Amino acid sequence: MAFDLEIRAADWRAHLAATHAALPGLVPVVKGNGYGLGRQRLAHEASRLGADLIAVGTYEEAHELLGSFLGDVQVLTPWRPFLPRVADPRLVHTLGRLADIPALAQQQPGARVVVEIETSMARHGFDRHHLAEAARAIAEAGLTVEGFAMHLPMTGGNLDEARLWCAVLEASALETTTVFCSHLTLTELEQLRGERPNLTLRPRVGTQLWLGRLDTLAVRATVMDVHTVQRGERIGYRQGRVPRAGHVLVIAGGTSHGIGLEAPRAVAGVAGRGKAAAKGGLAAAGLALSPFTIDGKLRWFAEPPHMQASMVLLPEGAKLPAVGDTVTAQVRYTIASFDTVREI
Amino acid sequence: MSLHVRTIGPDQHLAFVASRGSASFLQTPAWAAVKGEWRGESIGWFRRDELVGVGLVLYRQVPKLKRYLAYLPEGPVLDWSGDVAEALDAMRTHLKANGAFGIRMGPALVTRRWGAATLKAALADDVLTRLGDVPADHTDDAAVAVADQLRSLGWKEQAAEGGFSAGQPKYNFQVPLAGRSEDDVLAGMNQLWRRNIRKAAKQGVEVTTGIREDLAEFHRVYVETAERDHFTPRPLSYFETMWDAMTAEDPQRLRLYLARHEGDLVAATTLVQVGTHAWYSYGASTTAKREVRGSNAVQWQMMRDSLAGGAEVYDLRGITDTLDTDDSHVGLLQFKVGTGGEAVEYLGEWDLPINKPLYAAFTAYMKRRG
Q1: Is B125 close to A170, i.e. CB distance below 8 A?
Q2: Which domain of life is it from (chain B) (predicted)?
Q3: How does residue B204 score in pLDDT terms, banded at 50, 70 and 90?
Q4: How many CB pairs under 8 A join A and B?
Q5: Is A129 in CB contact (< 8 Å) with chain B?
Q6: Smallest Cα distance from B76 to chain A, Å
Q7: DSSP letter string over B5-68?
Q8: Which chain B residues are within 8 Å of A133, Cβ to Cβ?
Q9: What is the model's pLDDT at position B321?
Q10: For A227-282, how does the pLDDT look when each residue is reduced to its tens digit (9 = 90+)?
Q11: CA–CA separation, A95 vs A138, rounded Å?
Q12: Of the ranges A128-132, A221-225, A324-328, which one carries the lowest mean pLDDT score?
């Protein structure tokens, strides 16, 4: 109990239930670090919501969660012959290349598959001109088609592109009416459902579901030590000089928790780019803002975070926490790792 | 260099086309005579002394200069699975020596095909507005790869907006005949086509083939069609030249079909055949007596004759890539889809500039001319 996550369980679950109710056909996505909350916890919550299917990122994750989730498990990473084999009747593979069709059928006759199309994301999936050929090959190979998948980008309106892929599906020889999609708003989904009543749209949702109400989550970092320092005093692994008199707080939460790691942020606009550039400049000067809020403000690191703790400067005059107190921290949940996750 | 290109005679050119089974009629020596305003040349690719490819080159002169755009419509006739770079390099050397400032060609390679069922579903769908958006029933990866190769060799694909504006159409419609009987072909058509064919027969429409002298009668109906459909008709002399040049090469190369109802000519068409490939080329119909369905009758007769004449493909030629039911061009596709055939996408037309400033000036000039 040092760098911990607190979930206001009742409110968080109310949000999960509301999202589940608002998005018919919802497929909870449980992948990576479980959005900071842990895969097992999310798989358990998906069961509690009554989900018949969850989507995971990798075969390793699928292997783990088939044991804790009773419904079907879809793997988002397209099947490749070199990926670990997980043979389970509840597993649904993603197919994205012609060459993989006979190979998968050979490894697992009759396997259940979702056919992914290459959208403007240009990440995985069949070229649309190969879709008819894929449909033929899948039928010949005796695989079971469970749906069609389109992974759409996050920016701008996706409706036009989603419409196109639905039309493409219907003009193809693929024998399915289920469409798995991502990043469509509720309005967009409803519009599309109205236009294509014969298709079953199943939104795959991760962030919006698990992290849709960040106010129900709080990161509590425990103050492990407090030292008084003078201006110019040398401290830390790197023996840098303290720029101002005050206190150095040693707070639980270091690189092993994801502190100090920064996923590149999507920066849009001139102001955003300016801020990013300014931050980069400060970082180059050895100064970086920490994610810890103490006495109402984000505080500066005294030096780069250590593996399990961070040294943070608190200038004179600020309200000083005591050893054992907790402070809050802002983290990117998809790269965070907590010592404990507590429901309150 | 082991592969080289040189001028060949029409007989050698023709013999090679015959040995290949077929080639576009725009790649036969006779076509040079049809396109009298362009200078034509038959070229051959030789590996040592063996002829391995041919092409019909039409030279279009730059105004006031002795420099030319060398154009190979729907050609050349080459083994595109071989060493494309070597073959094209040999062609460039030859054409450059003949005063070409640039080369334009349209390899007759089919990259994608869409069957009638797919087209029907796509036409019924408002969202699918371009053929290119529809999953093709067949994709020829080797042909698609040739496009990448051409690009890497410095060739530029000519933008064919809607598939029609540039030289030869990129999208075409074909009825496969290989291994099919008349009954099979008829059964593949939609109900409307079959009904119209039956109707024409019941009304007593008679389809006959004509001789050179009948071209004048064809032309009269063709001019009427041009007025109705707002295109500029070609003069009768164009068809007479075409007749003379093509039938001289092979009496069966060009045929004229005339559909009559109670003595009145109601529809007239021309059919071209090179080996196993037959093309419906020009069509005309009167406004009067449309209800006797002369157009369907004449098409059906051409299909039957093509089949009997050993054709494996009946080609209804260009379509646009539009599937938008608000676009007037879509009617053409709907009409052709009724035959139960398939839409095919060709590799398109490609340009290789040899003299860049001249090529740029020429393309600008052509754009201004529209």
Answers
A1: yes
A2: Bacteria
A3: very high
A4: 45
A5: yes
A6: 26
A7: EEE--HHHHHHHHHHTS---GGGSHHHHHHSTTSEEEEEEEEETTEEEEEEEEEEEEPTTSS-E
A8: 137-139
A9: 87
A10: 999 999 999 988 988 988 999 999 999 999 999 876 666 767 777 777 777 766 66
A11: 10
A12: A128-132
The CA dihedral of A237, A238, A239, A243, to the nearest 10 degrees, is -110
Backbone phi and psi for residue A232, each to the nearest 5 degrees, phi listed first = 90, -10
pLDDT by residue (tens digit) across A157-210? Answer: 689 999 999 999 999 889 999 999 998 989 999 999 999 999 999 999 999 999
Asked whether the predicted pLDDT for residue A329 surpasses 80, the reply is yes
Distance from CA of A97 to the nearest CA of B (A): 14
- Shortest distance between the Cα of A73 and any Cα of chain B, in A, equals 29
Which of B130, B138, B139 to mutate to test binding with chain A, by most A CBs within 10 Å of its CB? B139
Whether residues B137 and A163 touch (CB distance < 8 A) is answered with no
Residue type, A194: G
Q: Cα A300 from chain centroid? A: 27
| A167 at B interface, C-beta within 8 A | yes
Tell me, what's the pLDDT at A1? 59
In the prediction, which pLDDT does A158 show?
85
Say what the ipTM of the complex is. 0.76
pLDDT tens digits along A10-33: 999 999 999 999 999 999 999 999
Asked whether B111 and B147 are in contact (CB, 8 A), the reply is: yes
Q: What is the spatial distance between Cα A274 and Cα A279, in angstroms, rounded to a whole number?
A: 9
Asked whether the beta carbons of B199 and B350 are under 8 A apart, the reply is no
Cβ <8 Å between A168 and B134: yes
pLDDT of B322 reads 85
A163: closest chain B residue by CA: B127
User: Nearest C-alpha of chain B: how many angstroms from A136?
Assistant: 9
Q: Using the 8-state DSSP alphabet, how is residue B77 labeled?
A: B
Structure tokens that stand for A291 in this block: 């994610």
Sole residue written with tokens 């449309």:
B290
Residue B217, token pair as written in the block: 């009668």
CA-only gyration radius of chain A, Å: 24
pLDDT in tens, B340-357: 999 999 999 999 999 999
Would you call B121 and A130 a contact, using CB atoms and an 8 Å cutoff?
no
Task: Name the β-bridge partners of B26.
Answer: none
Rounded to a whole number of angstroms, the distance from the CA of B84 to the nearest CA of chain A is 24
Contacts of A62 (CB under 8 A, 6+ apart): A56, A73, A75, A86, A88, A91
Put simply, the answer to whether A132 touches B125 (Cβ < 8 Å) is no
The predicted structure's pLDDT at residue B28: 96
Indicate the pairing of strand A289-294 with strand A144-150. unpaired
CB of A131 less than 8 A from some CB of B: yes
Q: Which amino acid is at B60?
A: R
Distance CA B285, CA B299 (A): 12
CB contact under 8 A, B118 and A131: no
Most confident listed range (A284-293, B113-122, B326-335): B113-122
SS3 B130: strand
Q: Which residue of B has its CA nearest to A135?
A: B137
Task: Examine the pLDDT at B162 and tell me if it is beyond 70.
Answer: no
B21: its two tokens = 């089974």
